[in-house]
Amino acid sequence: MREASSTAHEAYSFACMKCGYGWEQGYEIKHLEYADGRPLIVYYADGERVPSPLTNPTCRNCEGHVVRIMRSGRVSSAEAALPPH
To answer: Contact at 8 Å (CB) between 22 and 75?
Structure first.
């Protein structure tokens, strides 16, 4: 395996459709290649390798798999619109 020339940084917002929990996470995405030239994309969150958040997202609260993925900032903007408790 060899490292290709690009590393991307992306962030997503997530909302669990089972329990209603919402969160945001940033990722460092490394584009690698196997020895035969096939692409390999590896995701890191908080410095640790993690599965792709796009293939089988899991709720951090209830571990459910019915999770909506949105552009970054959606959870924080929704929380800001809520009245204070």
So the answer is: yes
Instruction: Please check whether residue 33 lies inside any domain of the structure.
Output: yes
Predicted TM-score (pTM) of the model is: 0.73
| Residue 28: both structure tokens together | 């460092």
CB 14 within 8 A of CB 25: yes
Tell me the two tokens of residue 14.
């997530």
Integer angstrom CA distances of residue 82 from 54, 77, 79: 28, 9, 5
- Secondary structure letter of residue 72 according to DSSP: T
81 secondary structure, DSSP code: H
Confidence category of residue 72, pLDDT binned at 50, 70, 90: confident
Give residue 58's domain range.
Answer: 2-72
The percent of residues above 90 in pLDDT, for the chain, comes to 69
Query: In sequence order, which ranges of the chain are alpha helices (DSSP H)?
Result: 74-81
> Which of 6, 31, 17 shows the shortest CA–CA distance to 64?
17
